[in-house]
Each structure stands twice: as C-alpha cells, then as structure tokens.
Amino acid sequence: MTKAIVVFSGGQDSTTCLFWAMKHYEEVEAITFYYQQRHDTEVEVAKQIANELDIKHTVIDVSVINDLTVNALTRNDMDIETDSETGLPNTFVPGRNILFLTLASIAGYQTKADAIVTGVCETDFSGYPDCRNEFVEQLDKAITLGLDKHIEIKTPLMWLDKSQTWALADRLGRLDYVRHNTITCYNGIKGNGCGECPACHLRNKGLNEYLQHKEAL
Fold first, then answer.
1. Which of 62, 91, 106, 165 gives a 20 to 30 Å CA spacing to 211?
2. How far are the Cα atoms of 33, 80, 110, 153, 191 from residue 98, in angstroms, in the given order?
3. At CA 204, angle to CA 200 and CA 206, rounded to 5?
4. 3-state secondary structure of 91
5. What is the distance between the alpha carbons of residues 149 and 183, in angstroms, rounded to a whole number?
C-alpha cells in the first residue's frame, strides 16, 4: 500500500496538495504545524477539512521557532512589508520549511510512508528561499542520508503559478471546495479573505485569471 503524509495548513495550496495526494496514494495522512502564526485560525480550518475528508490528522506545536526568529508572520504588532536588508518579505520565517519537512519525514519514517507532499512553489513564492526546488532536492538528499531511507518529498505545485494551482484543483474536481473552505489570508478570514493582505492579492489574482481563462474556452 502506498502512503503519503501531507504538510497541511488548511490553505489553498496545501489543500490542493491533499486532494492530489488522495488521488495518487492509497493512504494519506496530514500534519499541521502550529507556530503562533498570526493567521492561526488555519489550524482549526485544517482540523475541519481533515475531519470532513476522514483524513488522519496530527497538529504539532513548533512555536519554539519564535524563540529564534522575529517576523511578521508570527507577530501581529509588525506591519507586513519588505525587509530592507534582505529584500525578502518580513513574513519569511527562517528555517520554517526545513523544520516542517524534517519533522514530517520523521513521522513518515515511523509510519512507513513513501512520500511527504508539500505545497511549496518556486513560481509564486514571494522570494522565500526555502520554497525553491533546489532547496527541496538538497533537503531530500540530506534527510535520506540521515534516515538511511528515502521518503520522497513531492512538490506538485512547484512550477505552477496560482492560476495553474486553481486549474489543478478544478481538474481534481475540488475547485469550489478549495475556494470556499480554505484559508490563505494573513488576517485569518476563510475563503476570499480580507482582500487586502499580500496572500489574498496573490490568491484572488490567480483565481480571477483562471476563471477568465476558463470562461474564454
């Protein structure tokens, strides 16, 4: 039996990845990480989606990462802007995906999973260095060496922009579900979100582009 563990936030990307994994693997589990994110409503949304889909779901508290880093994704008193020193959005949490994928791989080792599925993407990645394909490939190699077992890190969205990600959800027959039941908004509003934060702009722009393309066909 083939098995995958999905790194699952309850957002558009990870929920699309969850449906993708359900199509490609016989058994699927989901892991959600709580790290005092400003949009921590996503944890409850992830629980709800996993329950609705009858997916085994684990929430792991990794808020210790906030003892080591300061960023706008975990600090409500910080405005979301570009860091003048690094040129990255100040929502970047250094080491977040290193930590998430490593912990997911440990869980995968224990549960005999074949793959870890994550929604990282190099097309619409806001410049985050830990969303790049090169990073994923190198971490995959390091984890394989460390575990002496290959649990493949799968990235079905790596080369898709947001419009193409919506298209994938549609091909999976889950466009409306992803549209109305997921959360991407930094301000914690489900569905279309607040419409103002960078995450909402990216999500809604991609959706509008896809719907316009679909209507034109």
1. 91
2. 12, 23, 19, 12, 28
3. 120
4. coil
5. 34
Strands 27-34 and 152-154: unpaired
27-34 and 56-61 strand pairing: parallel
Residue with tokens 């930590």: 99
pTM equals 0.91
Angle between helices 96-111 and 133-147 (to 10 degrees): 40
pLDDT in tens, 18-38: 999 999 999 999 999 998 876
| Total residues belonging to the chain | 217
Q: Phi, psi at residue 59, to the nearest 5°?
A: -110, 125
Query: 110: number of CA atoms within 13 Å, CB side?
Result: 6
Distance of CA 39 to the CA centre of its chain: 13
Kindly report, residue by residue over 81-116, the tens digit of the pLDDT: 566 666 666 667 778 899 999 999 999 999 999 999
